[in-house]
Amino acid sequence: MINELFIKSTESKKTKPYSPNSLNIFVGPNNSGKSLLLREIFQNLTNRYDIPESVLIDDIILSTPPTEITDMLRKQNEEKKVSAYESYMYFFEKDQYNSQYGSIPIREFNDFSEGKVDDYKSDYYRLFKYAVLQSNVLLLSGATRLQSMESMDFSTISNTNISNTVNTLLNDETLLNTMREYIFDAFSLYLEIFIISGQAKFVLSKKPLSEELRLSVRPAAAEFLLSNSYSSENSSDGRKAYLGILSEIVAGNPNVLLLDEPEAFLHPPLARKLGNVISKFVTSDSEKQIFISTHSADFIMGCFEAHVPLNIVRLTYENEKSTFRPIDQDILIKIMNNPLLKSTNVLKAIFYQRVIVTESDSDRAFYEEINSRLLEYKPEWGIKDCLFVNAQNKQTTGIIVKTLRAIGVSAIAIVDLDFLKDGKGEFADKYLAPANIPVPSYSGLQSNRTTLKEAFDKLQNEHGSTKPEFMKKEGLEILKKTNPETYQMGMDFMDTLNSYGLFPVPAGELESWMKHLSVLGHGSNWLTDVFEKMGDNPTSDDFIRPTENDVWEFISTIKKWFDNPDKKGMVN
């Protein structure tokens, strides 16, 4: 079993040690290194000689192997069943070893098996890892799991060299019944083993085979299964993948299983069920250690619903910088349990580089469409790999931003300008603190907020209470004519907030954008009408494309924060 992984990360001068448990899940944006990490773990544990140059893995240290493993290796070596190169390091002939690797001191096998060695990068330690795990590590790829219903060799005689999931389940009724329960729960079909022509294979039956015919070679068993079951040829990739993954976990030989994108071929509810089943089974079997890379929030949610300990690690890679960050369990629990966070699908954010949090769903839909058109027609202003989520109001945007930044996700909040109305304490708690703005800056910013609010209140009083609110309808621009000094102070105030990833709408509110379209209304009604005027046919002359100002420029300002490698407000 793996005791420690040492992961390379550009955010730290030293490689980061990671202590895995039974279930370890790697998440992150596309191209962040999740699949690569699994492949490098596999190479490090299974290459007996030279290991290819790694990008992410610096070293792997095993825990002390169980006595039965070291005793087995001793016996195999003494019986000459496994060569010295493959099993038992202290039996190397010094001259033979030196001819292969150069002059390296001979180390005893016990030094490694009992944890008494510190040169983990030596050729000896690599061979030790290979000896212990050579047949106990499996990288389960998409192609491998789709072969789960193919015919396999089997034997009912113990101590054979046949090692596959069908053979294991055929000889272990308890494990077979466990698998049958899992499969029926997923597909309402019965897992059976079809034995014919000296081989056996899994089939999924619409009806259960009777006990007297189960695992039988009698013609009646074959006739029943041929007429009632699905074989590999007429089963979906989803069924085969689900069966392939679970059969390896339940009945496979590997102690270390590397599983890349288990959600592949599965629809979301099935991915969620798979996460739940894997979590419960693996944590109850301390002899297995599983490393999973996934892009699926449904799979993660299924794991969480199993109520077992989870190690979830987020990887990122951007601008030639990599990060490796375990997600704090308390934060993970908050994401899964907090009603606000659950209702806004915040869990999806762990798979994105950037997240924009808006006040409402109308805001989310509008800014997401604006960004989409920027990426298409003015990509230098568009924000790639960005998830848009909405809070319930401006006061709750900070909860989401603070939570995401705590796990290393770059997140910003867009709020309407009437956030200036919130009082001193609320202004600090709801907006400044979640953006990680330094406390010494609070008094100055709060003073700016008061000055701006008073300027807008004065305008409102001068024009009568029946007039629209200048703060939301006109934004800062109206102060440019009536109060230039306050306007400039307001722009500096906005720049400061923007530098920490807090973006008040300078035009006032959502409905203040694109005034040239003359759309009235509010919220969803405004959104429906403005989308209609923006058009949906890119070949039409009426289709609205990005310009050099308005909301397009606002999004480009947000992009600058995301692109800044030294952005303020992120948690180190």
Short description:
The chain is of the alpha/beta class and 572 residues long.
Please tell me about this protein's structure.
By secondary structure, the chain is α/β, with parallel strands linked by helices. Among the domains are: 150-234, no CATH class; 347-563. Helix content is 44%, strand content 15%. The chain is built from 23 helices and 17 strands. It has helices at 34-46, 67-78, 94-101, 109-113, 123-133, 142-145, 165-170, 173-187, 219-228, 237-251, 268-284, 297-305, 329-337, 339-343, 361-377, 394-406, 424-432, 442-463, 470-473, 477-482, 484-499, 523-534, 550-563; strands spanning 2-7, 16-18, 23-27, 57-62, 137-140, 152-153, 190-196, 199-205, 229-230, 256-260, 289-293, 311-318, 321-326, 354-358, 386-390, 410-415, 502-504. It has a 6-stranded mixed beta sheet with strand order 5-10-11-3-12-13, sandwiched between helices. Strands 6, 7, 8 and 9 form a 4-stranded antiparallel beta sheet that branches. A 4-stranded parallel beta sheet has the order 15-14-16-17, with helices on both faces. Strand 7 and strand 8 (199-205) form a beta hairpin. Helix 8 (173-187) packs antiparallel against helix 10, helix 10 (237-251) runs parallel beside helix 11 and helix 11 (268-284) crosses helix 12. The chain is elongated and about 95 Å long. It starts with a strand and ends in a 9-residue tail after the last helix. Mean pLDDT is 86; it is low at 82-107.
